[in-house]
Amino acid sequence: MNQQYPSALLERAVNEFAKLPGIGAKTAMRLVLHLLRQDKETVENFGHSLITLKNEVKYCSECHNISDTEICGICADARRDHTIVCVVENIQDVMAIENTHQYKGVYHVLGGVISPMDGVGPSDLEIQSLVDRVNKGGVNEVVLALSPTMEGDTTNFYIYRKIEQSGVNITMIARGVAQNDELQYTDEITLGRSIINRVTFTGKI
Amino acid sequence: MNQQYPSALLERAVNEFAKLPGIGAKTAMRLVLHLLRQDKETVENFGHSLITLKNEVKYCSECHNISDTEICGICADARRDHTIVCVVENIQDVMAIENTHQYKGVYHVLGGVISPMDGVGPSDLEIQSLVDRVNKGGVNEVVLALSPTMEGDTTNFYIYRKIEQSGVNITMIARGVAQNDELQYTDEITLGRSIINRVTFTGKI
After folding, report:
1. Which of A118, A124, B21, B28 has the maximum number of C-beta atoms within 10 A of its C-beta?
2. Is the pTM of this model over 0.80?
């Protein structure tokens, strides 16, 4: 909508919303007008929740996950296995893995993957701190859980080269056909790899 | 994502975003993490723009459009024809009509349409203020420009009954086939009406 707004305040709020990824001018307008219809307290809660988050949020000094405290809840949990470190790209991936309830180790959040196209190199990520963490001892296994993309694979390989001398076990999450996928529509790389990496069928899924 | 957030501050911000229409938990998370990557000033501008808008915005006392002043820019403009009042549902519709550069009268923003299903009755809308405005005199024509839906038509008819006695001209924006529509895919109500309301072809579109 290339047009004049009836109010400079409205225009400013719409423009701020429209800066967000995937939010165009029309959606921004709809969201702002929705907020305008809410009561004053709701809008203030919304605005302040973002400002407070930005000003007060911390990143765990161990794993670099978002945290309200110096050490995050997972790293501070004595019941977790601190000898296994799962390397993930971002916070959402920690939440996704936690959601499976299948992992009891700790994490290391890289903050991205190596992507020369986007100008992201190893020094922009928490890779050196991972190497330091492994070299400090106490870690038996590093589980690489990056996305199965070219950037993820590049980052996996870079990390592997950085820590292979340390003697730690380096594993990678299994790649293969996803639950409920139809074989005929699965790409050949995935299907081929699922055959190469076949596992003994034990009668349980 | 039915899961535990690593930070209560993060969770609060995501929940606030997820209250917005059309924004689910995953999108909210993506937007909040995007804001977290911006600098402090950007996030504060975002939050404050919404709070300021809510606290300081005014509604024009004439037409009820959003405004930074007591009387909006359109109503305050002496070059506009104040004898023609275009009745619209909301602010976006004012902006859409202004964008055509085809209308030089003023507006009356209802703030919605009559919709019993959504619990919106005539008293929830700026209908009485429209009737008062017409009865006060000085208005020659009321242009009904509501959406061609059942709710829009109901509202059109309600307004018509309220102001027909005043002797003002009551018009409605033309309904017919839209530019670049294909006739074979146009619904029969629209196509039938476009035949009934055909106009003299003057050689100009």
Report:
1. B28
2. no
